[in-house]
Write a structure and sequence with these properties.
With 273 residues, the protein is of the alpha/beta class.
Length: 273
Amino acid sequence: MSLFDWQQSLLQCPFDGSDVIVADRAAQCVRCERTFPVQDGIVRFVVPDLEHLQDPDEWRWKQSEMEARNEQASFYDRLIGLMILTPLEGPMTVKALFPDTQCVPLLAEIGCGTGRMLVRLASRAQKVIGVDISFESLRKCRERLQAAGKRDYLLVHADASFLPLKSASVDAVASCQMIEHLPSDRMRRKAVQEMTRLLKVGGRFALSGYHWSWLVRWFGPKEGVHKGGIYYYRFTRDEFLSLIPSEIKTEKLTSIAGYAWLVSGVKVRGQSG
């Protein structure tokens, strides 16, 4: 298969940053010549070589989550906690990312899962990109976007810490309760820097992640493992704000019902280095 021009123009190799060419059922880096499968219209950049870019323990935790998310994809949206939280989280995230009523040309959500938030954010963007480490979740996300009548989208199977997308290519970027599942401080900061790299100067930014509040302290530890082998970390206020790089001007930090932090802002300059 071939992608539309706007979709292919956004892709880059996660190993060396070179262009990739998509044809038939595979994508290939023009420099290192690595190939990446394309399945159901989703380009799959999660390949065994990614292990060499990170600590073996980090990769092991990510594989554990990927397997769990794939297993959960068929029923994830019916989890009682999400059914309660999403009606509150959805409008708060849309308002944080788009304080006015503007519509942007291109939005990306990193860690989009089955699309519970992406389908809401998509109402404010002409085109959208969804990235997730779970391929089965991306399949569900595709179904949800199609059911909502969204046709201009690109779904990418990728690691949030090594995004296969061009720098300064999107007008808004969000990540909704994904960051807490990355298994080290190094990987969390790498993922936020990657999100920032994708964003154009002047673009909107929103990030949410678990809140280590007095409420949640009744239900579990600050750091642990969810059922199915999914790592998590709950952030204090200072810990969460420290994830935001200097290129992002923070405008607002709020708590979503004591369960998750939500920070929003704008990219004010290009990344250093």
